[in-house]
Amino acid sequence: MRISQITFILLSFVVFVFANAVIVEWKAEPEQSKIVLQWKTSQEENVTKFVVERSTDNAHFSDIGEVTARGPGFQYHFEDENLGMTNSLFFYRLRIVNENGTFQHSESLQVIPNISSISRSWGSIKALFR
Fold it and tell me: What is the pTM of this model?
């Protein structure tokens, strides 16, 4: 019984120290020529911003935008419109940045954009007249 109480106290401390943001919803969905990212937190302690990162190999990520932290329960929204004319697989993750500069990463999500053939054709037609 004593060991379980110590374990509970230790786990509570670890969650408090390392979990400055608890993300309860995290999704990425294709919408025509963009990817819409949405997330919601149930806890944000000392979080200043969320940096949205994108990758094509799930290993090397680049920053594509930032969203200022607004507090727990807020529904965040970010649109990635710089996809080019490709139906490639993209990976997205959040870098959760704290006031002291430390950060954590969310799980990565994979998504394939819905670039229609009409959009591709129109892009090709516009390129002819440049």
Answer: 0.73
